[in-house]
């Protein structure tokens, strides 16, 4: 099951990014709850929403769909979505699907 920490982790001011840590698997069983929580987290975000993926062990196509959907919602609100802590297996999936070009990855 995926667990996320919703509270902004590093907000020094209104323009500071909101960082969310994701844990576990992002798959068909967890995407509904994840989508709802990420949409809720967008309320805290004013300039950038960073998803820390360092503890994500697996992400399937439904998980990628959630990431793309949240990116689109964030854009509509003027918020940039970025990923960090990407494991090699997820990096490969993002590259194969071409999402590495539309989902910014921070090192």
UniProtKB/TrEMBL annotation:
Coiled coil: none annotated. InterPro entries: Anti-sigma_ant, STAS_dom, STAS_dom_sf. GO terms for molecular function: anti-sigma factor antagonist activity. Residues 20-107 form the STAS domain. It holds the Pfam family STAS. CDD domains: STAS_anti-anti-sigma_factors. It comes from the Bacteria. NCBIfam families: ant_ant_sig. Belongs to the anti-sigma-factor antagonist family. This is Anti-sigma factor antagonist. It comes from Acrocarpospora macrocephala. The gene is rsbV_3.
């Amino acid at each position: 099951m995926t667990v996320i920490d919703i509270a902004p982790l590093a907000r020094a001011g209104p323009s500071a990014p909101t960082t969310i840590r994701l844990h576990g698997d992002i798959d068909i069983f967890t995407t509904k709850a994840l989508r709802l929580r990420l949409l809720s987290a967008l309320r805290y975000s004013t300039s950038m929403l960073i998803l820390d993926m360092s503890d994500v062990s697996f992400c399937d196509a439904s998980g990628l769909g959630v990431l793309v959907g949240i990116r689109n919602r964030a854009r509509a609100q003027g918020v940039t979505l970025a990923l960090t802590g990407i494991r090699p297996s997820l990096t490969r999936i993002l590259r194969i699907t071409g999402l590495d070009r539309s989902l910014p990855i921070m090192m």
